[in-house]
Amino acid sequence: MLWIMRFSGFFSAAMVMIVLSPSFQSFPPAEAIRSSHADSVLRFSTPTHSGDKFSFRRAPAFRNAGECRSPKVANYSVCDPSLVHVAITLDVEYLRGSIAAVHSVLQHTKCPESVFFHFLVPEIGFQSLVRSTFPELKFKVYYFDPERVRNLISSSVRQALEQPLNYARNYLADLLETCVTRVIYLDSDLVVVDDISKLWSTKLGRKSIGAPEYCHANFTKYFTSHFWSNSRFSGVFSGRSPCYFNTGVMVMDLGKWRRFGYTRRIERWMEVQKTSASRIYELGSLPPFLLVFAGHVAPIEHRWNQHGLGGDNVRGSCRDLHPGPVSLLHWSGSGKPWLRLDSKQPCPLDSLWAPYDLYGHST
Ligand SMILES: *[C@@H]1O[C@H](CO)[C@@H](O)[C@H](O)[C@H]1NC(C)=O
Ligand SMILES: *[C@@H]1O[C@H](CO)[C@@H](O)[C@H](O)[C@H]1NC(C)=O
Fold first, then answer.
1. Which backbone phi and psi does 105 adopt, to 5 degrees?
2. Could you say which EC number(s) this protein's record lists (predicted)?
């Protein structure tokens, strides 16, 4: 708790920045390449859930406000139509971030008991940790077998972008119960500071996914010249107006996803990357998503992904917010707030992440 006090000055300064002057400098989102699973070093030893190396404080119980819809099915079975579904990955490296993200969702929604979390894990053993941290949480843990994608992953510029769990979002439609036809996917390095039910009720129209789009970003650079010079590849974008979007915050229509077989379409592009004479893109899990969806994305307000707060990938410098209101803060980029706070070298906006951190011993 000491550091919360220490950085409370930063905190107020940052709040003032948000309220009075949402941005000092805008930066190309393109550079905030991928979010989770960036180049951070493992800080935890293997989780020994009963041991003291890896403990989270218990979050308070969060209760629904009076106006929340009551469950249609007894005990909120996962198929209850009044639920808001959120999917997020849990792994040792980003666990602290994932727990903070969940905490932030619960804290800002009017109907926390109506949120159902779907946790994708690369190894067994997170169930009891989640249960002890959030005793009343509605959740289910799904094992995502890293082998499922390992053969499809080609080496990328940033080693960390190759984490199999990074690709788990491609498989949500297969993993989740078929009664779940919409899900919000969230990365592990973000906090939600608004009611997630607003994001949940986004209208997707005829589109299969929704995300904030960044049409001023230079789309060309996500693919190689080999890709652009070969119409067999680049022809995929003809008749489309593709824009960059960040895959760390998406509203996904899983019904359409299943019907149109998007998982397989994404995998096919990964196979092309793997087998073509020369790479068609350099990054990890993002380009296949762009290939399938860019230009076919329902636009969501930018407030739902204020990304890039992890800092510049090359220089590691701090970043400011984009102009406009903020509903979700995303530390995509190379730095993570918990590492910078621990190392006593935080960026000013890291103090906005700190209140959601539950890592540490209960007293
Ligand atoms: C809800 O679940 C609890 C515990 O599993 C069970 O005891 C109770 O009977 C259930 N209530 C209903 C209405 O099904
Ligand atoms: C976009 O990026 C490509 C490849 O990096 C570059 O050749 C091109 O000049 C850029 N276009 C603009 C408008 O910056």
1. -60, -50
2. 2.4.1.-
Stated pTM of the model: 0.83
DSSP 40: P
Instruction: Give distance in angstroms: CA of 218 to centre of ligand 2.
Output: 6
Asked whether 140 lines ligand 2 (CB < 6 A), one says: no
Q: How far is the CA of 136 from the centre of ligand 1 (A)?
A: 14
**Cβ contacts of residue 235 below 8 Å, gap of 6+?**
none
- Dihedral of CA atoms 262, 226, 36, 249 in degrees, nearest 10, equals -50
For 206, residues 6+ apart whose C-beta sits below 8 A from its C-beta are: none
Kindly tell me if the per-residue pLDDT of 112 is higher than 80: yes
Domain residue limits, the chain? 9-356
Q: Is the CB of 74 under 6 A from ligand 1?
A: yes
Taking alpha carbons only, the member of 250, 248, 342, 341 closest to residue 296 is: 250
Q: What does the pLDDT average to over 29-41?
A: 32
Minimal-distance CA residue to ligand 1 atom 1? 75
Neighbours of 214 (CB within 10 A): 20
162-197 confidence digits (pLDDT tens): 688 999 999 999 999 999 999 999 999 999 999 999
pLDDT band of residue 352 (cuts 50, 70, 90) is very high
Question: What is the average pLDDT value for the chain, to the nearest integer?
Answer: 84
pLDDT tens-digit map of 261-302: 999 999 999 999 988 888 999 888 899 999 999 999 999 999
For residue range 244-265, what is the model confidence (pLDDT) as tens digits?
999 999 999 999 999 999 999 9
Asked whether 166 and 78 are in contact (CB, 8 A), the reply is no
Binding site membership of 128 for ligand 2 (Cβ less than 6 Å): no
Beta bridge partners, 119, equal 88, 141
Give the nearest ligand 1 atom to 75 CA: 1
Which residue's alpha carbon is at the smallest distance from atom 14 of ligand 1? 74
Angle 286-293/262-275 helices, nearest 10 degrees? 120
What are the residues facing 297 on neighbouring strands? 209
Starting from the CA of residue 225, give the closest ligand.
2
Classify domain 9-356 by CATH architecture.
Alpha-Beta Complex (3.90)
